[in-house]
């Protein structure tokens, strides 16, 4: 994002609220990237169902604005990735934060909801809470994975934390923080029973062939580390399983071009991979087994009820630092495995085999993938466990995660000002 993108508010005095306050609630939301914009759009719709006359202001993207949200700043102002990029834009981000806090304090909304983006939102929330405003943080940082003591700090920023995973509120409770499990939005977007046949028909894949979906990450840095071993593993699996079809979703045009280059040496005697523009969920649902990078995609594969093999590598320096400082609280990495333990489905064999760092080699990835293809009983056990975990990610089977979040926010709004 260019640093020349203008702020919607002037850089000098804080502008006054353009509409006078009435008896209708004023609800502020702050979303910092595309995923937050989607969460925010669903939340605006759910809150409007509870408060039809409410006015929604703050920072949001096109999806939120389509729901009637009034964005005071361009959401791209917060859509930064990586330490170097954040440092380069730090003076502008600090100025934006000062202006946003001052504007919200002047507007006195009934509640302020920071949606994810903890590096920016928690600082804003803390300042607003000190000023006497009610604050909510929607999407807990991964306190279950590393630095649990962050929960106490988050509690100083947010009067209430809305959690996507059921194991998170007990962690906050240990630190005296009000946290509510509202369910994971992705769990609303997948059916409890996945339709493999329909997905294969949509992608033009044969119904009777074994299918492997390969997802080596959605970022260029991930593809640089994982593309080679993942695609080499796929070749090994294809050579061992006659008729195997391989489906590879590309997150965007740049990733499509890079994957196409990596596939240039695909053996002529094997069925050519199906390289897709997006359509990751369909590729997962069409597959018998998924080979993928650790991250949110593992949760999506779990919700698609597909057995998976998970691999990942970080830079050797980052890995050594994390280990030396004991930053990680867990010895498992894939979300399905973490959830299985939290929900009492833990077992000696992980639901999703994990091959991390030095173990993330083509040979080991291929071996674990072939083992799943060849063990139908194991695949059936995994699918049954994933169905249980899918239900566990729904706070209310009769409503959506956004509905549950709106109820928790509405309860706070009706309970008076939260104390800092």
Automatic annotation (TrEMBL):
<dbReference type="InterPro" id="IPR003835">
    <property type="entry name" value="Glyco_trans_19"/>
</dbReference>
<keyword id="KW-0441">Lipid A biosynthesis</keyword>
<comment type="function">
    <text>Condensation of UDP-2,3-diacylglucosamine and 2,3-diacylglucosamine-1-phosphate to form lipid A disaccharide, a precursor of lipid A, a phosphorylated glycolipid that anchors the lipopolysaccharide to the outer membrane of the cell.</text>
</comment>
<dbReference type="Pfam" id="PF02684">
    <property type="entry name" value="LpxB"/>
</dbReference>
<comment type="pathway">
    <text>Bacterial outer membrane biogenesis; LPS lipid A biosynthesis.</text>
</comment>
<dbReference type="GO" id="GO:0008915">
    <property type="term" value="F:lipid-A-disaccharide synthase activity"/>
</dbReference>
<dbReference type="GO" id="GO:0016020">
    <property type="term" value="C:membrane"/>
</dbReference>
<dbReference type="GO" id="GO:0005543">
    <property type="term" value="F:phospholipid binding"/>
</dbReference>
<comment type="similarity">
    <text>Belongs to the LpxB family.</text>
</comment>
<keyword id="KW-0808">Transferase</keyword>
<dbReference type="GO" id="GO:0009245">
    <property type="term" value="P:lipid A biosynthetic process"/>
</dbReference>
<keyword id="KW-0444">Lipid biosynthesis</keyword>
<keyword id="KW-0328">Glycosyltransferase</keyword>
<protein>
    <recommendedName>
        <fullName>Lipid-A-disaccharide synthase</fullName>
        <ecNumber>2.4.1.182</ecNumber>
    </recommendedName>
</protein>
<keyword id="KW-0443">Lipid metabolism</keyword>
């Amino acid at each position: 994002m260019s640093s020349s993108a203008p702020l919607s508010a002037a850089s000098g005095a804080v502008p006054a609220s353009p509409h006078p306050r009435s008896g209708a609630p004023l609800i502020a939301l702050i979303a910092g990237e595309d995923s937050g914009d989607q969460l925010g759009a669903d939340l605006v719709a759910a809150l409007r169902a509870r408060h039809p006359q409410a006015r929604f202001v703050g920072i949001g993207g096109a999806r939120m604005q389509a729901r009637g949200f009034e964005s005071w700043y361009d959401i791209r102002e917060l859509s930064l990735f990586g330490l170097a990029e954040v440092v380069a834009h730090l003076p502008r981000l600090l100025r934006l934060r000062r202006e946003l806090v001052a504007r919200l304090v002047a507007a006195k909304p009934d509640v302020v909801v920071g949606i994810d983006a903890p590096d920016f939102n928690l600082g804003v929330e803390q300042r607003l809470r000190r000023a006497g405003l009610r604050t909510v943080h929607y999407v807990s940082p991964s306190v279950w994975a590393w630095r649990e003591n962050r929960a106490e700090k988050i509690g100083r920023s947010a009067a209430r934390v809305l959690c996507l995973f059921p194991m998170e509120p007990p962690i906050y409770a240990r630190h005296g923080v009000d946290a509510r499990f509202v369910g994971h939005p992705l769990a609303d977007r997948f059916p409890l029973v996945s339709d493999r046949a329909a997905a294969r028909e949509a992608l033009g894949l044969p119904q009777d062939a074994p299918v492997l979906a390969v997802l080596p990450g959605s970022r260029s840095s991930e593809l640089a580390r994982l593309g080679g071993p993942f695609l080499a593993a796929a070749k090994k699996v294809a050579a061992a399983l006659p008729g195997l079809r391989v489906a590879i979703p590309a997150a965007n045009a740049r990733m499509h071009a890079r994957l196409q280059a990596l596939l240039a040496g695909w053996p002529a005697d094997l069925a050519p991979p199906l390289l897709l523009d997006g359509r990751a969920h369909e590729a997962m649902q069409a597959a018998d087994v998924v080979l993928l990078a650790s991250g949110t995609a593992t949760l999506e594969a779990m919700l698609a009820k597909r057995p998976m093999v998970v691999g990942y590598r970080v830079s050797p320096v980052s890995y050594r630092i994390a280990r030396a400082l004991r930053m990680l609280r867990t010895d498992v990495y894939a979300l399905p495995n973490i959830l299985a333990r939290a929900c009492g489905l833990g077992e000696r064999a992980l639901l999703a085999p994990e091959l991390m760092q030095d173990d993330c080699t083509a040979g080991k990835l291929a071996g674990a993938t072939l083992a799943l293809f060849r063990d139908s009983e194991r695949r059936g056990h995994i699918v049954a466990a994933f169905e249980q975990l899918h239900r566990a990610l729904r706070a209310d089977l009769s409503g959506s995660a956004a509905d549950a979040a709106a109820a928790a926010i509405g309860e706070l709004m009706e309970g008076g000002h939260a104390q800092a």
